[in-house]
Amino acid sequence: MIDQKNMYIGTLKKCLSMNEELELYLEDAKERMDAAIQHLDKVLSKIRAGRANPAMFEDKLVEYYGSPTPLKRVANISVPDARTIRIQPFEKSLLHAIEKAIMAANLGFNPSNNGEVVIINVPPLTEERRKELVKQAKHEGEIARVSIRNTRRETIEEIKKLQKNGLAEDLAKDAEEEVQKLIDSFSEKIDKLLANKEKDILTI
């Protein structure tokens, strides 16, 4: 009788441990998918639309005392109007370094400075260039889709391993359905981000 009780307690502990492990896998999957969406959102924000956008320049590296430093850390970036970006360095000595960094980024802009700030005029996009940018956005969206699909595959594999080790079949099935719900939810988020970016790019 005692042996049976001990076996029951041992099985219960094992199930609890597996349930906890299962929850960790599901939480990890959600976090990884969320990270893929956040990365996509950040990348899309840097794809030029028809208007001036500070995000295109914030992470461009500027040589600052011998160290490559993100532009947003050494200057204020503002948009006085839809066709102009104004970059005011914290130190005037950085004006030429900022111009050089922008030219090196190959964004298609010709910066100039008036001795105080770097000024970038943003010309309107051609129809051909807009189509290229839409393709670029869709490519980034596909990278995000591949990322969340890989997360699904890896998470399902872990769930199946747990099932082989004793996880109840109904719990494994429920977990797989939960993973699919995550995929559906994050796929919708990707679709929405891409639709908004395409609209932004094509709006004249």
Please characterize this protein's 3D structure:
The relative contact order is 0.15. It contains 4 helices and 6 strands, in the order αββββαββαα. The longest helix has 44 residues, at 2-45. It starts with a helix and ends with a helix. With 204 residues, the protein is of the alpha+beta class. α3 packs antiparallel against α4. A hairpin with a 2-residue loop joins β1 and β2. 62% of the residues lie in helices and 13% in strands. The strands form 2 sheets. A 4-stranded antiparallel β-sheet has the order 3-4-6-5, covered by helices on one side. A two-stranded antiparallel sheet has the order 1-2. It has helices at residues 2-45, 95-104, 127-164, 169-202, and strands at 61-64, 67-70, 75-81, 84-89, 112-113, 118-121. Mean pLDDT is 85; it is low at 8-13. The chain is elongated, with a radius of gyration of 25 Å.
Entry keywords:
204 residues, alpha+beta, four-stranded antiparallel beta sheet, two-stranded antiparallel ribbon, 4 helices
Concise description?
The protein has helices at residues 2-45, 95-104, 127-164, 169-202; strands spanning 61-64, 67-70, 75-81, 84-89, 112-113, 118-121. The strands form 2 sheets. A 4-stranded antiparallel β-sheet has the order 3-4-6-5, covered by helices on one side. Strands 1-2 form a two-stranded antiparallel ribbon. It has 204 residues and is of the alpha+beta class.
Secondary-structure map:
Blueprint: H1 2-45, E1 61-64, E2 67-70, E3 75-81, E4 84-89, H2 95-104, E5 112-113, E6 118-121, H3 127-164, H4 169-202
Antiparallel strand pairs: 1-2, 3-4, 4-6, 5-6
